[in-house]
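Methods — Computational structure assignment.
A single polypeptide chain was analysed. Its primary sequence is given first, followed by the predicted tertiary structure written as structure tokens.
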Amino acid sequence: MILDVEIERTLRAPAHARRAVEGLGEALDPSLRPDVMLLVSELITNSVKYGGEGDLRLQIESRSPKHVRVEVVDQGVGFIPKARDRPVTTAGGWGLHLVEELTDRWGVHEGSTHVWFEIGESP
């Protein structure tokens, strides 16, 4: 199953993105769903807060229930991912740390705000 969803850049964007994940239904193993929901929420929130103008794009591909690839694209100018350098007691800044911890593979297309991750067995 492949979903390609345009999401309006508003404070409701993370909720719209979570509904898109729910739309995968049985195409996504229930054991993967909580992590995918959390990470999609985090990345969409980052895009709303730090990205450029215009809509966001959420692309989700699940070729088997045990594997999912997610891409979040916004119109930002790009960034270089860096390790969290703030105390754990400081709020915020956990999104990419969570992506690192909960995924099998992830990355950023150089020079863009196009972040992707994969969870689960490769199909």
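Note: The chain has one domain: 2-120.
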